[in-house]
Amino acid sequence: QQQVKQSPQSLIVQKGGISIINCAYENTAFDYFPWYQQFPGKGPALLIAIRPDVSEKKEGRFTISFNKSAKQFSLHIMDSQPGDSATYFCAASMTNQGGKLIFGQGTELSVKP
Amino acid sequence: DAMVIQNPRYQVTQFGKPVTLSCSQTLNHNVMYWYQQKSSQAPKLLFHYYDKDFNNEADTPDNFQSRRPNTSFCFLDIRSPGLGDAAMYLCATSRDKGPYEQYFGPGTRLTVT
């Protein structure tokens, strides 16, 4: 019930294409869904986050789509660039557990020039 | 710049030899977290401090301990490192409990020989 399942494990996209990463969860008590971007040898950095009262959030080329009834959320990277090549983690947390993040397994994105 | 700093960035220790990793933050955040991240895996929460209140994850081995002498500093002590403890150790901070962004440090890469 505490798991967050992420797919695909790896993704190769051409420059300018759309990258889509999907996550699913079971626990309806989760109330915060962030996406983190991690480059090799660096710590994760928050990319974008959404709360369950919103179905979509967009920041620049990055969009989260959230489907509360299906308990799924996804990250869309529009006009993908080689500089976007990194590992992406979705996560979920619930306020009554002190904001503890439950991470998905990660997706290694490679954007080819 | 306000940030999360981890020292050292790379640490080599011998099997069974105690080691301490340090984290400091200039964000004045109440919550500090320690994560373990193994290659190609998601970060795994070991424990966190809410102010001085220590919260251990149920599956964190007793071999791992932590200290938070003041708001700015937090230490991870590994009492008897095994080969399986080789990993990246990430420190993160959050303004407060709940659905707030976690700011990660660059990590300490621990090698056990």
Helical stretch tally of chain A: 0
- Biggest interface, which chains? A-B, 24 and 27 residues
Q: Tally the helices of chain B: what do you get? A: 0
Instruction: Count all strands of chain A and give the number.
Output: 11
Shape of chain A: globular
Low-confidence stretches of chain A: none
Give the CA-CA distance, first to last residue of chain B. Answer: 36 Å
> What is the percent of helical residues of chain B?
under 10%
Number of strands of chain B: 11
Proportion in β-strands of chain B: over 45%
| Overall radius of gyration of chain A | 13 Å
Distance between the termini of chain A: 40 Å
Shape of chain B: globular
The sequence of SSEs of chain B as H and E is EEEEEEEEEEE
Task: Estimate percent helicity of chain A.
Answer: under 10%
If you had to describe this structure to a student in words, what would you say it looks like?
- Chain A has 113 residues and is mainly β.
- Chain A is built from no helices and eleven strands.
- Chain A has strands spanning 4-7, 10-14, 19-25, 33-38, 45-50, 56-59, 62-67, 72-77, 86-92, 102-103, 107-112.
- In chain A, the strands form two sheets. In chain A, strands 2, 4, 5, 9, 10 and 11 form a six-stranded mixed beta sheet that branches.
- In chain A, a hairpin with a 4-residue loop joins strand 7 (62-67) and strand 8.
- The model of chain A has no long low-confidence stretch (mean pLDDT 94).
- Helix content of chain B is 0%, strand content 52%.
- Chain B is built from no helices and eleven strands.
- Chain B has strands at 4-7, 10-13, 19-25, 31-37, 44-50, 53-56, 64-67, 73-78, 87-94, 102-104, 108-112.
- In chain B, the strands form two sheets. In chain B, strands 2, 4, 5, 6, 9, 10 and 11 form a seven-stranded mixed beta sheet that branches. Chain B has a four-stranded antiparallel beta sheet with strand order 1-3-8-7, with no helix packed on it.
- In chain B, strand 5 (44-50) and strand 6 (53-56) form a beta hairpin.
- The mean pLDDT of chain B is 94.
